[in-house]
């Protein structure tokens, strides 16, 4: 059985796409403040279709010796979200952001890859998207810019404030602002891992906390430990690209666009009107 983890927010297409691709379980990673509404409004929609588990991402769930600030409200980021699900996972698994639409073919693609992963290996795979297929018309986005050689990821750099201005795509890395090729491959956090990834995540989270444990805004992004593992030759990341077009709820103004895209897919027969 392959598992799908983590789901941070509700995604309308996960149930259909994941089930059709052959995944056997979905693990939702949720904020503690959302437990009640999640159990009432989200779980009933899934429980009759696929095995479900939930994990609460708690800000106080830190390695021994570390204490965050009492004022921190935001979770520690995507890397910490995956770590929060460690005890619920024992097989190769996929990771997604649940407020993103990835496309049905991408789910089939990563499921086929995971079926070939040795659970004892450090094999990692990533479904990459063309940057121009991942932009919002209503503001900037953040993406992991991939550097690739011979089909393998050689580095991943987190770019923020990416948006199209006067026909050019701009992004920021630290204090540097740069033009980005629209054909560039970016990560949308659609990863495939073996359970061995947790050792890397734990080690790098400790490194992160040594610098940022008192910073209420700092986030432990999944891109950082992956980039570290590549550069230290701890593991290789096979990159597979998809022609699917992303859409998601990055900005409030995206809501109508997303509704229109969903309706389009329903009208085309890609999804039933009620999932």
> What's the average pLDDT?
86
Radius of gyration: 18 Å
The outline comes out as globular
Structural class: alpha/beta
CATH superfamily name?
Spore Coat Polysaccharide Biosynthesis Protein SpsA, Chain A
Instruction: Tally the structural domains.
Output: 1
The main sheet comes to: 11 strands, mixed
The quaternary state of the protein chains shown equals: single chain
At CATH level 2, the architecture is: Alpha-Beta Complex
Brief rundown of the structure:
With 275 residues, this protein is an alpha/beta fold. 28% of the residues lie in helices and 29% in strands. It contains eight helices and 13 strands.
Structure in words:
- This protein is α/β, with parallel strands linked by helices.
- The protein has a single domain (3-267), classed as Spore Coat Polysaccharide Biosynthesis Protein SpsA, Chain A (Alpha-Beta Complex).
- The protein has helices spanning 14-21, 35-41, 43-46, 78-84, 104-114, 197-212, 223-231, 254-267; strands spanning 3-7, 25-31, 51-57, 93-95, 100-101, 124-130, 141-149, 152-165, 168-173, 176-179, 185-193, 237-242, 247-248.
- Strands 1, 2, 3, 4, 6, 7, 8, 9, 10, 11 and 12 form an eleven-stranded mixed beta sheet that branches. Strands 5-13 form a two-stranded antiparallel sheet.
- The longest helix is centred in the last third of the chain and has 16 residues, at 197-212.
- The radius of gyration is 18 Å and the shape is globular.
